[in-house]
Amino acid sequence: MYPPRNYPPRGLRPRIRENVNEAIKAREVRAVFPDGSVAVMPTPDAIRRAQELGLDLILVSPTAEPPVAKAMDYGQWQYENKKKQHDARKKQHVIQVKEVKFRPNTDDHDYDFKKNHAIRFLKEGNRVKALVQFRGREIAHVDLGAKLLQRFAKDLEGVGQVEGQLKLEGRSYHVIMAPAKAKEQAKPRDGAPQPAH
To answer: Which domain CATH number covers 35?
Structure first.
């Protein structure tokens, strides 16, 4: 037999709204009302005045001195907040590090194929990690890996720029390339006519 519960079931628990009406812990707030009036007043008075207008008092800037609270509809405020967060996520671009692998004796066709992939990744705004892997006795020819990566960095000069230096870690040599800055891509070449303003 299970002991009796001393708390309401999950569906019936009251939802606690943070920073709204009675949940505001500050003694006084800078209250902003829909008519444009702003006043520093005790929190209970501000809540009473907001409720007289049929609105909720919502703490919009809790770190300010005194905290700023706005009289508005809680549902409308939630909707606007969700919309702002959604728009911010839409505009956010996550930069990924894409990897392109080579071997010290990679032939020209494979090299060009992988180079084109790297160019596409850089144009999308991602970083590229070019990696030369050595197997078995190939580790004796580290200089071939270094030459390959230098050639790779030189071929991608207009699209990307090398971050740091070539690094040898264990059985792999790698370099990381970041997309070239927009200003550098927009620079006219020497001798090219500049647009008239």
So the answer is: 3.10.20.80
